[in-house]
Amino acid sequence: MSDLGDWFRSIPLITRYWFAGSIAVPLVGKLGLVSPVNLFLWPDAFIHRFQIWRPITATFFFPVGPGTGFLYLVNLYFLYQYSSRLETGAFDGRPADYMFMLLFNWICIVVSFSSSDFEKYFLLMIPLIMSVLYVWAQLNRDMIVSFWFGTRFKACYLPWVILGFNYIIGGSVINELIGNLVGHLYFFLMFKYPMDLGGRNFLSTPQFLYRWLPNRRGGVSGFGVPPASMRRAAEDQQGGGRHNWGQGFRLGDQ
Asked: Which of 64, 132, 149, 254 has the maximum number of C-beta atoms within 10 A of its C-beta?
């Protein structure tokens, strides 16, 4: 148990809480301590009944069962692997900036699903994980990565390979597609547009996050560092209609 505890404490701070929540909340639903219906994002209940906890619980919850267990474990692995790499790589020593990226992506995902069919309810775990994976892949786009059966390709293709992989084992690509689009939006506004195209910087980490999660030096590094031009620009700016998107479940289907 001490080895397991040491491994858990070695996970970067923000990823550690996200990873733990993504185990605890599904376990609560699996044990029946809370009805799973109360853990999904159901737009009608969220908007009209002010059940404001739903976007949060829907981010951590996944209905684990015989037909979904493998998909859950695969995406839990992606969460641990790529969130850790991003937090200890491009965002090393800058937990406030990493938290801001997660919050920005999460808000975009919630807005996307909340504007969907009110009769459906949604899970947000996979879209948020995919948005983080997409950002990591773009910051390390020329890195050669390995996937199943020894296949090797550039990291920039990884989000789309996983999209296809999840389609094979899960039967849908909407969650993955939403995650990729949100990750692209963050990457474009934070890196591509201001740094490569010389445009205005639309995204800036709020000061209260710096007070809550101050920058620090040191830590583990080496997992995915942005290109030099991106690092310099990022360091300079520190301190300071209805759509039917998303794979949903109609009430009563479960």
From this structure: 132
The Cα 174–Cα 245 span in angstroms is 7
CA distance 192 to 254: 42
Region of poorest pLDDT, from 63-67, 213-217, 224-228: 224-228
What is the C-alpha to C-alpha distance for residues 246 and 172, in angstroms, rounded to an integer?
Answer: 9
34-37, long-range: CB < 8 A, 24+ apart = 36/61, 36/63, 36/254, 37/121, 37/251, 37/254
* Topology adopted by domain 8-212: Rhomboid-like fold (1.20.1540)
Contacts of 168 by beta carbon, 8 Å cutoff, 6+ apart? none
Question: pTM of this prediction?
Answer: 0.81
Per domain, the residue ranges of the chain are 8-212
Please, are residues 108 and 185 in contact by the beta-carbon 8 Å criterion?
A: yes
Amino acid identity at 229:
S
Contact 13, 86 (CB under 8 A): no
What span, in angstroms and rounded, lies between the C-alpha atoms of 230 and 4? 36
Give the distance, in angstroms, between the CA of residue 115 and the centroid of all CA atoms in the same chain.
20
pLDDT at 94 over 60: yes
Q: Rounded distance, CA 222 to CA 216, Å?
A: 16
